[in-house]
Amino acid sequence: AQNHLLLLPGDGIGTEIMAEVEKLIAHLKEKGLADFSFDTGLVGGSAYDAHGQAISEEDMDKALKADAVIFGAVGGPKWDDVPYEVRPEAGLLRLRKDLGLFANLRPAICYSALADASSLKKELVEGLDILIVRELTGGVYFGEPKEIIELGDGQKRGIDTQVYDTYEIDRIARVAFDLARTRDKRVHSSEKRNVMKSGVLWHEVVTDVHKDYADVQLDHILADNCAMQLVRNPKQFDVIVTDNLFGDILSDSAAMLTGSLGMLPSASLGAPDASTGKRKALYEPVHGSAPDIAGQSMANPIAMLASFAMALRYSFEMIELADKLEGAISSVLDEGLRTGDIMQEGCKKVSTAEMGEAIIAK
Ligand code: NAI
Ligand code: MG
């Protein structure tokens, strides 16, 4: 089928926020705005309870066949003591590995209504909309050698190795340029070529790939300067492409310019399919299963719905619909609706379903 999704709600608030995605899909179909078919599956603790695995082979198979996977969250105290190989996170790691998701997309969007809650001045963050594209499967987190060796005399040496091959930089650069084409057509590539050989290669390969994207503006920025500029004047950026380590730090830092964990979406993309050209993709909120509020209809569904907006934008080229959904989130916040995690004075406190339904109605 066309536009086929696999919904994996997972554990804790994962099921509560995914219910709002299901309502949205039904609404889009009813209004003739978009027609998605979907399967649902189990992942994390709920999959362990059902099959003794963090994700079943059957659900992995569905994930591989889907046009996009929509993932809630996994984990919780109930599964803290299950064997390591079948712990809830193993389900997510298996999905990332088998789908080959090497590109992690983390937007930092500032909704006007929440600009006051930012740790930066309102005028610096209001209207902020940047996208960090982080390389997810290479670099210093995976390079060999990786070890601690004994040097004698009580001295030890900790070694991690930053390794990047041309193909790894080439493919992440293409993701960034492709994404930039659906946005403001500007990319900043960030590395430290002044002190790192992998940075020299990064700069060289990104510059080379850029020849295929003459319509996109490319700037290079050293990663330390990038960190500073993100706090000094974040709105100068549109897309930032960077390696695994710098991306980890820059994306967490950029995301927190804008507010609560319950607001942050993400996407992970793989290589384009040889025949269809479509990339494997998984969309998920940045937050976890929030066991402290699970089952109380208190969870903020915005990170989940904003992740679905990313799916519309990046997997299905439904740019207008993605804009509408993000716009609806923004206006519902303007109207003063708040779940507990983003509650502000003078605003109206609502449940997960009330927030989801208000966004869908808008
Ligand atoms: P968490 O993100 O689940 O919660 C941290 C805090 O933020 C909690 O106080 C929670 O109530 C709040 N929060 C998170 N999302 C929210 C939402 N949508 N609406 C309102 N409040 C929200 O992180 P924590 O507590 O460290 O981990 C809980 C479980 O989630 C653990 O088992 C952890 O391993 C797992 N986890 C799973 C992730 C995933 O599925 N990708 C990511 C991070 C953690
Ligand atoms: Mg991190």
UniProtKB/TrEMBL annotation:
Q: Which GO terms describe its cellular component?
A: cytosol
- Locate the transmembrane regions by residue number: none
Q: Which residue spans adopt a coiled-coil conformation according to this UniProt entry?
A: none
Site positions (Important for catalysis): Y141, K192
A GO molecular function assigned to this protein is:
3-isopropylmalate dehydrogenase activity
Pfam family membership, one? Iso_dh
Details of cofactor binding = Binds 1 Mg(2+) or Mn(2+) ion per subunit.
> According to its UniProt record, where is this protein located?
Cytoplasm
Q: Which residues bind substrate?
A: R96, R106, R134, D224
Q: Which Gene3D superfamilies match?
A: Isopropylmalate Dehydrogenase
The residues that the entry says bind NAD(+) are: 76-89, 288-300
Per its UniProt record, what InterPro entries does this chain match?
IsoCit/isopropylmalate_DH_CS, IsoPropMal-DH-like_dom, Isopropylmalate_DH
**Which GO biological process entries does UniProt record here?**
L-leucine biosynthetic process
Catalysed reaction equations from the record: (2R,3S)-3-isopropylmalate + NAD(+) = 4-methyl-2-oxopentanoate + CO2 + NADH
**Pathway of this protein?**
Amino-acid biosynthesis; L-leucine biosynthesis; L-leucine from 3-methyl-2-oxobutanoate: step 3/4
Quick one: where is this thing mainly located?
A: cytoplasm
Looking up SMART domains in the UniProt record yields:
Iso_dh
Binding-site list for Mg(2+)? D224, D248, D252
Q: Which UniProt keywords apply?
A: Amino-acid biosynthesis, Branched-chain amino acid biosynthesis, Cytoplasm, Leucine biosynthesis, Magnesium, Manganese, Metal-binding, NAD, Oxidoreductase
Task: Pinpoint the Isopropylmalate dehydrogenase-like domain residues.
Answer: 4-359
Cofactors required: Mg(2+); Mn(2+)
Q: Which domain of life is it from?
A: Bacteria
**Function statement:** Catalyzes the oxidation of 3-carboxy-2-hydroxy-4-methylpentanoate (3-isopropylmalate) to 3-carboxy-4-methyl-2-oxopentanoate. The product decarboxylates to 4-methyl-2 oxopentanoate.
Q: What is this protein called?
A: 3-isopropylmalate dehydrogenase
Gene from which this protein is expressed: leuB
